[in-house]
Design brief:
By secondary structure, the protein is α/β, with parallel strands linked by helices. About 35% of the residues lie in helices and about 25% in strands. It has one domain: P-loop containing nucleotide triphosphate hydrolases (Rossmann fold), CATH 3.40.50. A hairpin with a 2-residue loop joins strand 1 and strand 2. Helix 3 runs parallel beside helix 6. The chain is globular.
Length: about 230
């Protein structure tokens, strides 16, 4: 479903991602973990097209997307939940979700969105800025889902969220995968969260993948070692 081949990304003369390669199956969840500044967010932004790659290729199925601008990548099947959620605080929950409908054939919010996120239905007339961090994260995911993506990118989804709500977010992502058969890539530092959702865990360090495990074979102590300063 998603193929990334020999991906290089640079800021000016400084290369940040050094030839990353991975392939994801339909409805697979992969977590990319690593310390801050190691390239997780850059990887997400480059797949989304926010940051251009200097070399390499990105495909969704048979479609090459690496030459497309961000808004075209949305049409090609990419959904993106940025770090910090970036919801519109002065708009209602309903209005926030409706912004994700732009460019689709949908005129109203599909019923399945509120089936996955019942709390958003209850709060649909409330301003986004009045929601808790966990509720805002659900709102950001819902906004991305209404474009019916084939691949969903989530950048640091547990950031600023209390542990009990992190479990709820994990449950939601597993439910989305089952209901919508969406391929999901998550950048994340909380190992317990990645263990609940990911089929594979990849460690990134200084712009290179240095370790990979399937969930059933995860060496938690080894990965924790990579995540310690």
């Amino acid at each position: 479903m998603l193929q990334v081949n020999d991906l290089h990304v640079a800021y000016g003369q400084s290369e940040i991602l050094h030839g990353l390669e991975f392939t994801m199956k339909p409805a697979e969840i992969v977590a990319v973990t690593g310390l801050n500044g190691m390239g997780k967010t850059t990887l997400m932004k480059s797949i989304m097209g926010i940051i251009p790659s200097t070399k390499g290729e990105i495909r969704i199925g048979d479609d090459k997307i690496s030459d497309s601008p961000s808004h075209v990548r949305v049409h090609q099947g990419i959904g993106y939940v940025p770090q910090g959620r970036m919801i519109f605080s002065t708009m209602t929950v309903e209005e926030n979700i409706e912004t994700g409908l732009a460019g689709t054939t949908e005129k109203t919010i599909p019923d399945y969105i509120y089936e996955i996120f019942p709390v958003l239905h209850e709060m649909r007339k409330r301003k986004g800025g009045n929601l808790s961090g966990g509720q805002q994260q659900q709102l950001a995911i819902a906004r991305a889902l209404v474009s019916r993506p084939k691949v969903l990118l989530l950048d640091e989804p547990t950031e600023g969220i209390q542990p009990s709500i992190i479990k709820d977010i994990a449950k939601v992502l597993n439910e989305i995968r089952k209901m919508r058969e969406i391929t999901i890539i998550v950048s994340e530092q909380v190992l317990s969260f990645t263990m609940e959702i990911a089929d594979r865990i990849i460690v990134i360090d200084k712009g290179k993948f240095i370790h990979e495990d399937k969930r059933g074979e995860v060496d938690a102590a080894k990965i924790k070692g990579y995540l310690s300063v």
